[in-house]
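[scheduler] slot 2 assigned
[scheduler] job type: sequence-to-structure, two independent chains
[scheduler] chain ordering preserved from manifest
[runner] begin chain α
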Amino acid sequence: MPFINTRTSCEITKEKETAIKTQLGEAIKLIGKSESWLMLNFEDNCRLYFKGGNSENMAMVEIALFGKATSSQYDALTAKVTEIISSELSISPSCIYVKYEEVDHWDYSGFNF
């Protein structure tokens, strides 16, 4: 039950959003999750600041998941998410943060897992 929230300082066209969505649906398998439970949110044109400024395009990707993953799974997913965002939105990997949150309690359809 992962949720990926992607904020960028640049515009995400509908075409790019669809491409990213599809690729993230595949990438989530790297931590043993499936696209059938994946929820995504995209927020573009955010006023993000990094290293004291905002002259470069940048992204903050937050990934919350029910349960846990291993360090090597996180490493693989971070590399893939960075590659996807960098290639689709022309954002330098050095301007992309990826944050993980492991959630013990997750509700769906009125019931807690």
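[runner] end chain α
[runner] begin chain β
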Amino acid sequence: MHRIGCSDLSKGYPRFGTDGIRGKAISLLKPDLLIKIGYFSGLAIAGDGPFIIGQDSRQSSCMITAALTAGLNAAGREVWVIGLCPTPAIAHIIRRFGAAGGLMVSASHNPPEDNGIKIFNKTGNKITPSEQEFIEQGFLKEINPLEPLGQTHYRYELIRDYEKSLLESAKGQELKNIPIVLDLCWGSATSCGERLFRELGADVKVIHGNPDGTKINVKCGSTNLEPLKEAVLANTAQMGFAFDGDADRMIAIDEKGRVIDGDHVLFLWGTYLKNKNELPGKRLVATSMSNLGLEKAWQSDGGILERTPVGDRFVQAAMLETNAKLGGEQSGHILSSINGLCGDGLLTAIQMSTICHSLNLHLFEWLNQSFKPYPQKLINVPISNSDTKTCWKESEPLQTAVNKAKDAMGEHGRILIRESGTEECLRVMVESKDPKMADSWSSHLAKVALTNLNAA
């Protein structure tokens, strides 16, 4: 069996990263390849039901959706096209209507010129490594359409079923007249974000609220919080929520302009559930990126914090193994048992706002009850050669620098270096109780990595 390797990448074949296939839409995701992805997805994923396809607002998304649909039809699979929707809507609709699987066309938080494909099986979870490998092997094969060909149906109305499930998650709690700002990032959240919060009774102010694929993630959303901060302060709102391009992540801002990231969400929401005896084993699942302050604060009250590699599939696997009900990433990708452990930024925002209101607190007051984070500095180091990116552990200059940093910080700091699963870069993170140490060592390690890993 031929396994697609790095030599094949030069021919333009993508590989699955930590969250599906992702890259430059024009150069990587060409129609003939997309048809193969659809076709071999249809063969790889068992089940008799339809395939669900949704998309974000990028200009390339319609073309990609059409090509994937053609491939699935060639594999004899029925397709329901949902249109513009958040990624978690695909998982919900798969489970709700007994679909065989689904595909989401989105590059998440990446810039507008990128796009990607996330593939789900009948459980609403990401496909397995073996299913990924089967699809990758298909890139080097020919398509032989099956009889009868599958049919395509346009089911745009199904997003309302997803919205209903989010409203039901509020359990009757309302947000009557509470001033809230939403940064919908010109992306998937524009499909239903404003409507949801208005139906809950909030006094809603929206920024970046139309679907515009030329602006998605550009100086807005969960990766650029300044516009949301300004809008919350200017409108004297109690809270604001920013989403990424496909709305599976959320970062919040309180009325003081302070950031509530995924680590704070885990601590606050987790504490709420723990106090209600609704958190089995007092257990949270986080990743290697989560702040050391979260870990120490959670453990100080008898809680258990499991750490996994970065990526929601790893968080989900650990949650299933340990029966955890809440987990997620610092970036705002939160998984809960409410919706079958699927990361959902809109669900997280609804839970945070309605729980806060039920506690009779403003968000800034609730944040005051959270942990004090250790200063962190993350630097993305561009790597010109994808083969080199995976060899950083063998770089003697970099490992020497890492050891010196560890000795200097001792127990009051830590270092995390990892390859990005979605970009050609190495992520260098340093965390220290002393912010100057975090800043200086991260800069030094990034410089060493840049110089040595990009050497000719």
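[runner] end chain β
[qc] chain β: The chain has four domains: 6-159, 161-259, 260-337, 376-453.
[scheduler] slot 2 released
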